[in-house]
């Protein structure tokens, strides 16, 4: 697979997989791979992204994690990112703050930038 730029979800499902043990990402992956459940080979279930990256780099299996989490390992040549055809994963993020407290100018600027980027009614950004 490493010689290719993209793979199918079916190809990923037939490979040894390294999944997070719990959490939102695990729920998403369980739902994503539900059609392939009978032939899914989960090689390891690990508690952290750091451990997942270590075992992927050691060629124990493959995993689906956020591109931003793998950036350093890709730069160093330890792992390769592949696009999976036919679907996009994204996560909605929110900014939470107390309205009854004064905020530093840097935080106010950040909130202003976020509001400008994500105006109501626009499509959500994929992360």
Strands, count: 4
- Secondary structure category: alpha/beta
Mean pLDDT figure: 87
Number of helices: 5
Terminal Cα separation, in Å? 24 Å
The share of residues in helices is 25-40%
Amount of beta strand = 5-15%
Strand count, sense and closure of the main sheet?
2 strands, parallel
Going across the biggest sheet, name each strand in turn.
1-4
As residue ranges, the low-confidence spans are 123-127
List SSEs in N-to-C order: EHEHEHHEH
Overall radius of gyration: 18 Å
| Net shape | elongated
Written account of the structure:
By secondary structure, this protein is an alpha/beta fold. It is built from five helices and four strands, in the order βαβαβααβα.
What distinguishing features does this structure have?
5 helices; alpha/beta; disordered C terminus; 127 residues
Short précis:
The protein is an alpha/beta fold. It is 35% helix and 12% strand. α2 links the parallel β2 and β3 (41-46).
Layout of helices and strands:
Blueprint: E1 6-7, H1 9-13, E2 16-20, H2 24-32, E3 41-46, H3 49-57, H4 67-75, E4 83-84, H5 105-117
Parallel strand pairs: 1-4, 2-3
């Amino acid at each position: 697979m490493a010689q290719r730029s993209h793979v199918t979800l079916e190809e990923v499902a037939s490979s040894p997989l390294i999944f997070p043990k719990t959490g939102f990402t695990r729920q998403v992956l369980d739902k994503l791979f539900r059609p392939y459940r009978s032939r899914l080979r989960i090689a390891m279930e690990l508690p952290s992204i750091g451990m997942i990256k270590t075992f992927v780099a050691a060629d124990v299996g493959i995993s689906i994690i956020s591109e931003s989490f793998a950036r350093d390992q890709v730069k160093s040549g330890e792992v390769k990112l592949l696009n999976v055809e036919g679907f996009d994963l994204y996560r909605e993020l929110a900014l939470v703050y107390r309205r009854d407290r004064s905020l530093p100018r840097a935080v106010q600027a950040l909130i202003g930038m976020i509001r400008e980027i994500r105006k109501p009614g626009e499509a959500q950004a994929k992360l």
